[in-house]
User: Fold this.
Amino acid sequence: MKKTVMIATVAAMLVAVSMPVVAQAGAEARCKSCHNFSDKNKVGPGLKGVFGSKAGTHAGYKYKFTKYIKGDPWVWDEAHLRAWILNSKKAVKEFTGDPKAKTKMGAQHVKGAKADAIIAFLKDLK
Ligand code: HEC
Assistant:
């Protein structure tokens, strides 16, 4: 009985200790499953230097959405990134002007303060 209580207490303490760490992890952590914050490509292209760059131009990455771009690609500024991380599936149609345009990146539904934090993070990622 005593042992059970102790285990429960230790477990509760561990949760208490690890919680703030999770809460403090950058909002960009959710992008990490698919992106590196370096030049290296993963499931998605490496995001280093993406802010201010032309869409679909990261070296060595095989994009899906680039085949729908007519003319010059858009530049990843704040407005484009905001729309992209909210709903890339919808944004790609707007940005290309092609209602059939598709992207491999699923809609992330990131908005508000989280979106602000991620965009600020990407801006600094040089
Ligand atoms: C489930 C995997 C996945 C997650 C999670 C994800 N992405 Fe992506 N992302 C991709 C893929 C795949 C592409 C390439 C899309 C294509 O080729 O159509 C991409 C493309 C991009 C691009 C275009 C880059 C370029 O070179 O033009 C940006 C910007 C981007 N992602 C930002 C983000 C951010 C910021 C997050 C976190 C909020 C995020 N992604 C989360 C998979 C993901």
Notes: Residues 19-24 have pLDDT under 50 and may be disordered. Helices lie at 2-24, 78-96, 112-124.
